[in-house]
Amino acid sequence: MSLTDLSLDRWRAMDTATATRCAEEAARRAGGLLRGLEASPARDLVGHRAVIERAGERYALIPGGEVTVGFDVDAWQPLPEQLASYREESLAGGFGFETDPRAQLARVMTPLRTVTLPTVLMALEPMKLPELPALIPALLAEQGLRLPRPDEWEHACGAGAGTLFRWGDGIPADTSPYGGGKGPQHLPNAFGLHIAFDVYETAEMTSDPGSVYGGDGGEAVCGGYGTLLEWLPLATANRNPATAEFLDGPEGEDMFEDFNMRPVLDLG
């Protein structure tokens, strides 16, 4: 099978031998080596995790094709504890948030949509920005790399899950959206990416200056916005427009090292 025809559905249906051949072909095209292929713990969504090493960095194979990204806010049913958090913490705090939590989510979540994406390699770990955001595309291009497009980032993070967070709709008990711990946010996702696990540390820029994902620099936590909104920056489709405005503004010139990038390598 050509990698240009490798969709998420086909990758999910492959047996191990076929998936290995596809991953080896991807490694060959990338000028790297296949370092591992294992069954994904979310096998019903993904099937396999393939890790490819190139120039000392490790990447995950992210199959594309026609996929669904974004979040259907209108269909979202907040869990009782989430609704209580919003009413008793977020609204009671007098921050001026929308009365309906769905309206508040609609301000930061991208809409549900179907897109067609290429199969790519994406870095397993986020990397701190070494330069001002405006200089990053050229810096990556020198290495044959680029930033992920917003649709690609959401697909790579959610890996086909239609839930609020990549691990489900609920907020893990007895843990926080920052620092260490044993919550599901700290585990590799279905593709093997270490992604969206700390609201302070894992905000990532994309090819769209207006779309930053994976964290808010700790704004909601520091502001005391309430449990639901403190976790929301880790939601797969949360594009953090306020964080993007900060990074793209004069403040970002002094604090860009607090933000991340996740290099992408095209295989086509």
Overall mean pLDDT score?
94
- Into which percent range does the helicity of residues fall? 25-40%
Low-confidence stretches: none
Global morphology: globular
Structural class estimated from helices and strands: alpha+beta
Beta strand %: 15-25%
Counted by DSSP, the helix tally is 10
Q: Major sheet: size, sense and barrel closure?
A: 5 strands, antiparallel
For the largest sheet, list the strands in their spatial order.
1-2-3-6-11
* First-to-last CA distance: 13 Å
SSE topology string: HHEEEEHHEEEHHEEHHHHEE
Secondary structure tally: strands: 11
Radius of gyration: 18 Å
Question: Could you explain the architecture of this structure?
Answer:
There is one protein chain. By secondary structure, the protein is α+β, with helices and mostly antiparallel strands. About 30% of the residues lie in helices and about 15% in strands. It contains 10 helices and 11 strands. The protein has helices at about 10-15, 15-30, 80-90, 100-105, 135-140, 150-160, 220-225, 225-230, 240-250, 250-255, and strands at about 35-40, 50-55, 55-60, 65-70, 115, 120-125, 125-130, 205, 210-215, 260, 265. The strands form 4 sheets. The chain has a 5-stranded antiparallel beta sheet with strand order 1-2-3-6-11. The chain is globular and about 55 Å long. The relative contact order is 0.17. The mean pLDDT is about 95.
In short:
29% of the residues lie in helices and 17% in strands. The chain is an alpha+beta fold and 268 residues long. The protein starts with 7 loop residues before the first helix and ends with a strand.
